Amino acid sequence: MKTSTSEEKRGIQWTARNQLDDLDFADDLALLSRTHEQMQMKTTSVAAFSASVVLNIHKGKTKVLKFKAKNSNPITLDGETLEEEESFTYLGSIIDEQGGSDADVKARIGKARTAFLFNTNVKAVLLYVAETWRTTTTINKKVQVFINSCLCKILNVHWPDTVSNSLLWERTNQLPAEEEIRKRRWKWIGDTLRKSSNCITRQSLTWNPEGKRKRGRPLRGEIEAAMKMMNRNWKELERLAQYMVG
Asked: What pLDDT, in 10s, does the model give residues 192-201?
């Protein structure tokens, strides 16, 4: 992979000096490029190097997702047009052409409905990678409404009977969804800050993406706003993270 992507700068700007060309996990590969031309060249290059070591890319399983792309031409592989999609699932999370976390949250709610045990199954599915969500008031409300409906069923509370949220959470030993997501996020931040400075997961915390972003506060903005309330900065968090485990 490094051989096929290291010759040219065809990725997205990641740090001041480095670009991020791809994300790899087992046999799953996600190529990243800023332009249609760069993506076409990278796709062709990866296919050629793969073929040289007797590895073939499955065209039917290879998809293209564009984000605010002006070039509508297709990406091709060996003369065949690769299918374009509005969203795809990568390592369990949904990524779509709109950005944000709405599609992923909606899918998590759908999956959680089929689970049976609330804490070990339902919440594990519902809040998977919640620490990385760009949370909004709407997202928090959607998650909380679903959790509350599950808790009411567990306690056999049905309309017209009602119970306050605080009593509902107390009787089921649950935290409000917003608070639980916040706790998960700070634990993840601590774990990430203990990683090597060369790790792309750690670099992502302070990464400034290129181009215009969607309206609303991004994940980094949420973190920095919380740090400001605690009179902390990134340097202090990095120092504190080294002394905290778990």
From this structure: 889 888 899 8
Does residue 228 belong to any structural domain of this protein? yes
Q: Residue 75 carries which DSSP code?
A: P
In a domain, 172, yes or no: yes
pLDDT over 70 at 7, yes or no: no
How many whole angstroms separate alpha carbon 36 and alpha carbon 70? 9
Domain, as residue range, for 143: 128-246
Lowest average pLDDT, out of 14-23, 90-99, 198-207, 212-221, goes to: 212-221
Q: 197-223, pLDDT tens digit by residue? A: 889 988 888 787 776 666 555 667 778
DSSP designation for 74: P
**CA atoms within a 13 Å half-sphere pointing along the CA-CB vector of 197:** 3
Contacts of residues 239-242 at CB distance under 8 Å and 24 or more positions apart, as own/partner, are 240/190, 241/189, 241/190, 241/193, 241/194, 242/193, 242/194
What's the number of domains the chain is made of? 1
Helix (H, G, I), strand (E, B) or coil at 140: helix
Within a domain: 245: yes
Alpha carbon distance 203, 14 (integer Å): 8
Buried b / exposed e across 214-223, counting CB within 10 Å, b at 16+? eeeeebeebb
Cα radius of gyration rounded to whole Å, the chain: 21
